[in-house]
Design brief:
single chain, mainly beta, 7-stranded antiparallel sheet, 9 strands
Length: about 230
């Protein structure tokens, strides 16, 4: 999972979030996949004057950075994660309160030095002029603690569906923002020139998408805009 973010060439091929609505990237079929990389932001360049704030495990001091680094930049990757599913049989209606568990295993998969809150002092999240504050504002991170100090949270949602003649699956898709910090080395030092320094993921929002099956084998799925709801 983390290796996907190490490869900037792969991340760069994702559609830009500014040009594509998140809801349009939700899977058209009810697929069982942990993390779906959906889109990304534009690159956010880190000014050279702020490089001293970056705790780069490969280049720990200012001289090493000035000698080897061409640039540091960050990007925000929008990731879809299944957070739950509710099946509704044909001719069945439902009216209930559902508990949704929002989880992330990314923090368990990264080393301490690869975590964004280690590479960039998380205490400076609200400090004007800091790299962490700059990234937080650019990517609209409302808090620096979501998924950063714990791997799960829960929410409650009201579920109401009238009966219909088809089987349905209601899937809850979490959208997370995975913020990745990259370094770009000067030619001749090592390849690839662009590599990951650190990353962190932040819960963003949850969508409820209904998959209505038009045949008994659940091979044909019908989804329309009314079947996609932003929760919260």
């Amino acid at each position: 999972m983390i290796d996907d973010y190490r490869d900037w060439a792969k991340i760069e091929r994702l559609p830009l979030a500014s040009e594509t609505a998140i809801r349009s990237l939700l899977p058209e079929k009810n697929i069982f996949s942990n993390d779906i990389l959906a889109s990304r932001s534009e690159k956010l360049e880190i000014p050279r004057s702020q490089w001293n704030e970056i705790q780069d495990p490969k280049l720990p001091d200012a001289y090493a950075k000035q000698t080897a680094v061409d640039a540091y930049f960050s990007a925000c990757v929008y990731v879809m994660r299944r957070s739950g599913m509710l099946s509704i049989a044909a001719q069945q209606s439902i009216d209930k309160t559902e508990t949704i568990l929002h989880t992330s295993s990314m923090r368990q998969s990264t080393t301490q030095t690869e975590r964004l809150d280690t590479a960039l002092d998380a205490s400076k999240f609200t400090e004007g002029g800091s790299v962490m504050a700059h990234i937080g504002a650019a990517f609209e991170l409302t808090t620096v603690t979501e998924y950063a100090t714990e791997e799960s949270r829960t929410s409650m949602v009201e579920i109401r569906y009238e009966q219909c003649e088809n089987d349905r699956d209601v899937v809850f898709w979490d959208v997370a923002k995975v913020v990745v910090l990259y370094r770009v080395l000067k030619p001749g030092f090592e390849t690839p020139l662009t590599s990951m320094v650190a990353l962190g993921d932040f819960y963003h929002e949850t969508y409820q998408k209904t998959y209505t099956y038009m045949d008994a084998n659940h091979d044909i799925v019908a989804v329309c805009d009314d079947d996609v709801r932003l929760l919260g």
